[in-house]
Design a protein that fits this description.
The structure holds 2 protein chains of 2 kinds. Helices cover about 0% and strands about 55% of the residues of chain A. Chain A is built from no helices and 11 strands. The chains are: A mainly beta, B mainly beta. At the A-B interface, strand 5, strand 9 and strand 10 of A face strand 5 and strand 6 of B.
């Protein structure tokens, strides 16, 4: 199984709503990531979890709250978002450590629209 | 810090013609290099990677890329493209031993015409 599964595929939410994006992998990877991708732009790193601990936060606004409940799951909790937060949110995972097989595997993404 | 430059935002090409998508990087440390492909409304798929060893790397669907350290380049090539190759292609770099911070180029849209 070399898949990273993200749910939901599409999400429309109001600016006062609270919602969560979910990501799951069963490759035994201990590093998991959230990226944000605006239309016609490359992905931008938001958060990195290593061994279920937050290791990198790229100065993301607090209305985005990541959570890693176990080694296979990664959530992104959303609250009080703005229309400019509309984007494709990508989850990725990779092996931890300094070995050569550390490439990132990406999920299909959640297309988020904030209205 | 690392950076990646993809000079061409869009490359139109006719079916069965050869194509080259250019990627140049800048880094003061050793890096891993990657090409990812993104089809419309989908996530990113790893196309090929250079970690070490042979500087010419190949994918299963006919793409190849060559790591050129002196020119700091990792251009992607395919001798004969198909309509189904139409997609966005991202070159990316990370420091050796860590994929924590994948730095992506701005992407090149390959548009294959019949």
């Amino acid at each position: 199984d070399t898949e990273v599964t993200q749910t939901p595929k599409h999400l429309v939410m109001g600016m006062t709503n609270k919602k969560s994006l979910k990501c799951e992998q069963h490759m035994g990877h201990r590093a998991m990531y959230w990226y944000k991708q605006k239309a016609k732009k490359p992905p931008e790193l938001m958060f990195v979890y290593s061994y279920e601990k937050l290791s990198i936060n790229e100065s993301v606004p607090s209305r985005f709250s990541p959570e890693c409940p176990n080694s296979s799951l990664l959530n992104l909790h959303l609250h009080a978002l703005q229309p400019e937060d509309s984007a494709l949110y990508l989850c990725a995972s990779s092996q931890e450590g300094t070995g050569v097989n550390t490439e990132a595997f990406f999920g299909q993404g959640t297309r988020l629209t904030v209205v | 810090a690392q950076s990646v430059t993809q000079l061409d935002s869009q490359v139109p090409v006719f079916e069965e013609a050869p194509v080259e998508l250019r990627c140049n990087y800048s880094s003061s440390v050793s890096v891993y290099l990657f090409w990812y492909v993104q089809y419309p409304n989908q996530g990113l798929q790893l196309l090929l990677k250079y970690l070490s060893g042979s500087t010419l790397v190949e994918s299963i669907n006919g793409f190849e890329a060559e790591f050129n350290k002196s020119q700091t380049s990792f251009h992607l090539r395919k001798p004969s493209v198909h309509i189904s190759d139409t997609a966005e292609y991202f070159c990316a770099v990370s420091k050796t031993g860590s994929s924590y911070k994948l730095i992506f180029g701005s992407g090149t849209r390959l548009l294959v015409r019949p």
